[in-house]
Amino acid sequence: MSIKTRRGFTLIELLIVIAILAILVGLIVVVAAAMLKQAKSTKDMGNHRTIGQATWSFAADNRGTLLHPRTEPTDSGTPSTQDQIDRFWVAAHGNDADGNARIETVSGQQVELLSSLKDGAAYQYIGDVTVYQSPLDETIGQIDQFVSGNPNLPTGRIRSYSLNAFVGVDWGADDWTYYETAAPYWFGVNGNTAWRSASTLSQVPQPANTMCSIGEQDLNGRNLNGWLINPITPNYYVDFPAFWNDNKVNVSYIDGSTGSIKLESDSLKEQWEQYGHNRPVSGAAVEYKKFKKIMLPGVIGSILD
User: Fold this and answer.
1) How far apart are CA 203 and CA 213, in angstroms?
2) What are 21-46's pLDDT values in tens digits?
């Protein structure tokens, strides 16, 4: 009668099993991280869609007049009119209904408070303060901490997005004489038309191809006023897009639709990290053309190409 002996795993077999498990765990971690990033990007795109739809709805309720991209009145150039101030999508200026300032200074940095969002013209159409914050934006602070009188007021930002500086304006970018003195309604240099009045839907030639919102991360802190590039000087970025979504920049359009701009190089990010804003970036000519074509198509994109 033979007796069978039970044989255990050898050391080599155990090491192979452990190696296989380690590989599987690594794959799971990578896949989970990619899925989480995709979920955040989807939520970010949803925020853009909400902002775009709010812009369209505001126009529908106001005889076609669009939200204004500024967040505070001009302090030079042509002063903002009360009509423009009432249309500012974010009200990062003045005091709220309780007499408290809508922005405070923390460690030398101006910080927008919750009231700046709720008192802006867009909020009644957005209705959710978290829409102003991208889940991809690591510089964003806890939104309920941005209140007047909070001794632990965050130094971070409450808002991730900016509006297109060329749309919702009566003339010029942000309704400000940013580069040259301009005649009302048309802004040109050396005979080239750069931009014009686009305060109403009827003045936007292609709403489905005209940018409404974009993610912006200003090294100086809060995103001040609208987002713009200089359509006169090639490859000149006054503002830079946010770089938190790998090589994509999510945007919304005036008709409420959404899309993404692909960044073809690292030049933009490298210049932004070094200077923050107001820089020519020759290595990002492809991106510049992409952004320019959606700032105000039919006025900026085609005439100046």
Assistant:
1) 18
2) 888 887 777 777 767 777 888 899 99
| 305 within some domain | no
CA 178 from centre of chain: 20
Is 219:230 a contact under the CB 8 Å cutoff? no
Inside any domain, residue 300: no
- Using alpha carbons, select from 275, 281, 273, 173 the residue that is nearest to residue 236: 281
Q: Tokens for 102, please give them.
A: 């809508």
User: Residue 77's domain spans which residues?
Assistant: 17-295
For residues 230 and 215, give the distance between their C-alpha atoms in angstroms, rounded to a whole number. Answer: 18
Query: Residue 285: which residues within 8 A CB-CB, separation 6 or more?
Result: 234, 235
Please give the torsion angle defined by the CA atoms of residues 184, 190, 193 and 196, in that order, rounded to the nearest 10 degrees: -20
| pTM for the structure as a whole | 0.84
DSSP state of 141: P
